[in-house]
Amino acid sequence: MIDLSHVNAWVFDMDDTLYPREQGLMALVQARINAYVVEAVGLDPQEARVLQRQFLDEHGTTLAGLMANYTIDPEDFLRVVHEVPLDGVEPNPRLAERLKTLPGRCFVFTNGAREYAHRVLDRIGIADCFDGVFAIEDGDLTPKPEPSTFRHMIERFDFEPRSSAFFEDTPRNLEPAKALGMATILIGDGHGKPLGDHIDHIAPDLLDFLNALTFKDAA
């Protein structure tokens, strides 16, 4: 039995968490990121993909790696790579209904751009389920899993970490959450990355996990 009865702040990553990876949105974003790296750095596509994976491992996002090693316009990067069609993302009214029944407040914590995040949430039909969105711009372009970004997010939304839960598809992004006392839930298979005891629960599907929760004070 999953006991999250202590939780009154529900924090969700967005991409591949609030919608299934199979809907393919991140593949479109990744393709635009690869193309941007090819042009910005002057590598061929295969070399650019290798560099991008290195930046993800070392810096958390491709943007952070580019900013650390090259001179680029971060606003241009965010605009270009997030200009993707959302046709493959399906509205999810059942998820909207379930999010609205969670006791307390709900937030989005994403390494994506702010405008993109609002577009995606609108497309899914869950924008009005959240009390706030913390995008990459809100963390001064410093991405998860940087602990300082988690602290800024918590300060912005003003909640107690030990009374919160964080849902995320990237295992290492759950490490600072666990260190702060948040309940941690991995959505999906972790993309083949190592798992660890910093993950409290693993759920193949977000909605199924939320539907399995029960609360003593529920109507």
- Based on CA atoms alone, the radius of gyration comes out at 17 Å
Q: SSE order, as H and E?
A: EHHHHHEHEHEHEEH
**Uncertain parts:** none
So, the CATH homologous superfamily of the largest domain?
HAD superfamily/HAD-like
Shape: globular
- What proportion of the residues is helical, as a percent range? 40-55%
CATH class of the largest domain: Alpha Beta
**Lateral arrangement of strands in the main beta sheet:** 3-2-1-4-5-6
Per CATH, which architecture of the largest domain? 3-Layer(aba) Sandwich
In the residues, how many domains can be counted? Answer: 2
The tally of strands reads 6
Note down, in words, how this protein is organized.
It is a single chain. This protein is of the alpha/beta class and 219 residues long. The chain folds into two domains: 9-19 and 91-212, Rossmann fold (3-Layer(aba) Sandwich); 25-81, DNA polymerase, domain 1 (Orthogonal Bundle). The protein is 42% helix and 11% strand. The chain is built from nine helices and six strands, in the order βαααααβαβαβαββα. The chain has a six-stranded parallel β-sheet, sandwiched between helices. Strand 2 (105-109), helix 6 (114-124) and strand 3 (132-134) form a beta-alpha-beta unit. Helix 1 packs across helix 2 and helix 2 crosses helix 3 (62-69). The longest helix is centred in the N-terminal third of the chain and has 17 residues, at 25-41. The protein is globular, with a radius of gyration of 17 Å. The relative contact order is 0.17. The model has no long low-confidence stretch (mean pLDDT 94).
